[in-house]
Design goal:
Blueprint: H1 11-21, E1 34-38, E2 41-44, E3 49-52, H2 55-58, H3 67-79, H4 91-103, E4 110-115, H5 118-133, E5 137-141, H6 150-155, E6 173-176, H7 187-200, E7 207-212, H8 226-239, E8 242-246, E9 270-273, E10 284-289, H9 290-293, H10 309-324, H11 327-346, E11 354-360, E12 363-370, E13 373-377, H12 379-392, E14 394-395, E15 397-399, E16 405-408, H13 416-435
Parallel strand pairs: 3-14, 5-6, 5-7, 7-8, 8-9
Antiparallel strand pairs: 1-2, 2-3, 4-10, 9-10, 11-12, 12-13, 12-16, 15-16
Helix pairs in contact: 3-10, 4-10, 7-8, 11-13, 12-13
Length: 436
């Protein structure tokens, strides 16, 4: 039986089965049960069509089921599906690493290891930094999201729902302030908070690494100003600390460059990559300066499934698609149009409710507040708009400390017509939610 096209299936019936079979702790962002998807569109089991502004939470920069990806997966699966790279190696793993070594920011020679998920890339970056430096301390930042394993959860700078009841957490991890001009946190404030950590919590010479998102994802799509990343790089260089870039959501073309750090001209020591690298197949990467990666003790890095050959084949297709279809340029076009439409709402029907519109390339978010006040987040209206949009055929997801932001992670292959339709739905949903 083809369960994905079961004519008797319904979202409500599948929800009932889900509730019986799955724990309540698993989130459900939409309540939609997918039957098929293509490009930037998705159809549920009831046949309803949606424009997808979530993209698998930033995983589908090249869209759902791109023909090149499907072909690459099929071809590789017909040869072999798995060997474990540590047992019988294969060229596609090496080729993915070669590409990332060339494309990641900075001129320093790089080396790459492949894993399964963003959290695993983060875990290994921190493990390796501690091993290489012989130091225990790690500095992360408020509002950060780095994953759901215990170490990644400890690094995450948002308590609810990610950290509730999971303590005690991994020791020697500290959080500085992340710059956020809209909410009154300046670059100077954020850099001073790092100095405060050095002064009152852990000596700088005991810190192995700082980990930072150049554009926060779950934190509300807040971009790190150039001066902040330059300041962190300077502090790291002064104290022998490694700088780790988490580009899991901002990477692979989303911001109009392969990686957001390229916008500011700062070279990290390690860069964590996942999400859109393999168009939905589980694959992540840790790329680092070659001299550092070669200091990791032999045998202390590895993964049973990491760099799976089918996922590597998909990743190689993704690189081709980004180049052949001009998706870096397309990300900027999508971002410009989205920002323009959202600012029209901010200056019109949603004046005083849309507090801020933020964008880096095609990475866009809109923040909702009460009475135009940044200190009064309005998660209720964001939730109402999300629900109204879904009823009209547009799926989105929230971000921010109070789920007060809506973000666009629409596949970069979206047509102008489909993008316009999605933005029209968003505008209608906003107006309807504000009238309710």
């Amino acid at each position: 039986m083809d369960h994905g096209n079961n004519q008797f299936a319904s979202n409500e019936a599948l929800k009932s089965r889900r509730d019986d079979a799955c724990p309540v702790g698993l989130p459900s962002k939409s309540g939609i049960y997918a039957a098929r998807a293509q490009g930037a569109e998705l159809w549920d089991v009831e046949g309803k069509r949606y424009i997808d502004f979530i993209g698998g939470i930033g995983v589908l920069n090249v869209g759902h089921s791109h023909p090149k990806v499907v072909e690459a997966i099929s071809k590789q699966a017909s040869s072999f599906v798995h060997t474990a790279f540590g047992i019988a190696q294969y060229e596609s793993y090496v080729e993915v690493c070669e590409k990332l070594n060339r494309l990641t920011p900075g001129a320093t020679p790089k080396k790459t290891a492949l894993f399964n998920s963003g959290a695993e890339a983060v875990e290994n970056a921190i493990k390796f930094a501690r091993q290489i430096t012989g130091r225990p301390g790690i500095i992360a930042f408020s509002g950060a999201f780095h994953g759901r394993t215990l170490l990644a959860t400890t690094l995450t700078g948002k308590s609810k729902p990610y950290k509730v009841g999971f303590g005690p957490y991994v020791p020697a991890i500290f959080h500085g302030e992340y710059p956020d001009e809209y909410h009154g946190v300046s670059v100077a404030d954020a850099l001073a908070s790092v100095d405060h950590i050095f002064k009152s919590m852990i000596n700088a010479n005991e810190v192995a690494a700082m980990i930072v998102e150049p554009v926060q994802g779950e934190g509300g799509f807040n971009p790190a100003p150039k001066e902040f990343l330059e300041g962190l790089r300077k502090k790291c260089d002064e104290h022998g600390i490694l700088l780790v870039a988490d580009e899991i959501q901002s990477g692979m073309g989303r911001t109009g460059k392969y990686f957001a750090f390229e916008h500011v001209g700062v070279e990290p020591d390690f860069i964590c990559i996942a999400k859109s690298i393999a168009a939905g197949l589980p694959l992540s990467a840790l790329t680092g300066k070659a001299e550092l990666m070669d200091k990791v003790v032999p045998g202390s890095m590895g993964s049973t499934y990491g760099g799976n050959p089918v996922a590597c084949a998909a990743a190689l297709a993704v690189f081709e698609i980004i180049e052949e279809e001009g998706l870096l340029k397309r990300a900027i076009e999508i971002g410009e149009k989205t920002e323009s439409r959202w600012r029209e709402l901010q200056n019109g029907v949603a004046k005083g409710v849309i507090g801020d519109v933020r964008r880096v390339g095609g990475m866009c978010a809109v923040e909702f507040v009460k009475d135009g006040d940044p200190s009064k987040p309005n998660g209720d209206v964001a939730a109402a708009i999300l629900t109204e949009a879904r009823s009209r055929g547009l799926i989105m997801t929230t971000a921010g400390a109070y789920a007060q932001c809506l973000r666009s992670l629409v596949p970069l292959v979206v047509s102008d017509e489909l993008l316009d339709e999605g933005l029209d739905i968003f505008a209608d949903a906003t107006e309807a939610a504000l009238k309710a």
